[in-house]
Amino acid sequence: MTRMVPTIEGRTRRVAVAGSPRAGRRSWAGLGFVAPFLAVFALVFVAPIAYSVYLSLYRTRLVGGTTFVGAQNYADVFADSHFWSSFARVALFLVVQVPIMLLLALGVALAVDSGRLYGAGAFRLSIFLPYAVPAVVAVLMWGFMYGPQFGLVAGLNRTYGLSIPNPLGPDWVLVSIGNVVTWSYVGYNMLIFYSALRVVPAALYEAAAVDGAPPWRVIWHVKLPAIRGALLIATIFSIIGSFQLFNEPAILRPLAMNAITTDYTPNLYAYFLSFSGQQYNYAATVAIVMGVFTMIIAYLVQLHGMRGIGDQ
Amino acid sequence: MTATTRRSPLLTALTGIVFVYSLLPLFWLVVNATKSQEGLLASFGLWFADDFSLWHNVKQTLTYDDGAFLVWLRNTLLYVVTGAGGATALATLGGYGLARFDFPGRRAVFAIVIGAVAVPGTALAVPTFLLFSKMGLTNTPWSVIIPSLVTPFGLYLMWTFAAEAVPVELIEAARIEGAGELRIFTRICLPLLGPGIVTVLLFSAVATWNNYFLPLIMLKDPDWYPLPIGLDTWNSQAATAGGEAVFNLVITGSLLTIVPLVATFLLLERYWVSGLAAGAVKE
Asked: Under CATH, which architecture does the A73-311 domain have?
């Protein structure tokens, strides 16, 4: 399995070639390799972003047609209580679900990597498997288990006389969604951490072993700093995922109509604005504002993470 | 690890809790795929009912609604082969180009593509839908395939992988022999990129196979639905007036949907784990 674990040498060599006199001759061949990707990228990333910025500056009314309104849509979004309540919900989700999921993933990754588990390979693979399950299937399964009809919760309550609250009620549905997301992505994040742990140079461990450091000190002072990059990437992806929350609440909605409103998350709000309300201009504005918020927060997390590395 | 490492029953048991958590819903799915619609309602969720209806359920899933499930399966396969296959090809070419060539704007390309990872995919969906509908592409397979062709994360992974796995000396030597760049790529570099390609292919196949939001907004015609959208419509059918409740088919269909993916991951484990490990070096 370690067959393909690469060396660091490649990187230094690459730098040397970039500075070689013949680099200029090859320049356009390189662009030729990247061009097909860039062409499709322009069509499905750049064009839609440009188009949504354009849309956000206009407004379509039944009377009077489409008119330029400048920043009016943005002002409306910032004054929109639906938007802010949906934003607050995903922010709460982010603050609670992401740390639970990442700590769980990190714990499993450290355990699997420690070499102290019986059957570590089976653990690694099984815990990753939910990632391969489509969101629709994941939500349907958990939805059935949550459900009042033939659900597991209903069955437990009936059989053992328990009174577990309805997981699809307004008080608990966000927790239920958090559980589905955690279930789906613990293994994926675990694998990212595990892959990073695998390539920590053995020399670092040997030095710690010579010092007689106990396992928790090795984790804290050697392993975690060594995989800081992977932790950062996983955190940023999870933040983006939380702000984008759509699939799970959208698929669960038929089972929890009262609890999951059309403005439950910003993306759900933008979706219903577009496809039920035909308010494309306003929906585009909501999407842009959310996109900018996401990038700002991802950027701040990155800055924070980088500063941490500087402290080492 | 050092030879002194002893196995720990306690740590194994703790990790076992996460293991059970991860597999419990899948166990539930397998158990309940063996039940008839009546058995679902009458029996406890985590154990088998008296009647074993798996084969009957499978048969009914494949034939219900004039064989809609098979049509959705065909569509999903079409989207995965073209979408994920194309995405992997573009990411491989692009990652190799970024890793092994220096050209004007290379740094800008990289910065833009990495920035794109932070753009919420669902934020793009509405404008993409409006653009595609102007171009007459909505409600055609193209509307699902074209957006699937770009995976910034795949490009990043191939870039890091190519930078580690393809020695520059090898390319230099081939150039001295007079080989063209395309020939060098296909004959020499492509085989070295194997584990990276398998990794990107698997992860984009999962993304395409599992795609929900994009086909949901792009497609109106059930004949072009992929499996997840189709299963969702079967599930919602019970809630509509006069709709037949076919939860046994939804559950069996769900099981049939995940079996190919799970099997692929298990079979190709060796390749994608090493591909991911290489990608992790750069982080």
From this structure: Orthogonal Bundle (1.10)
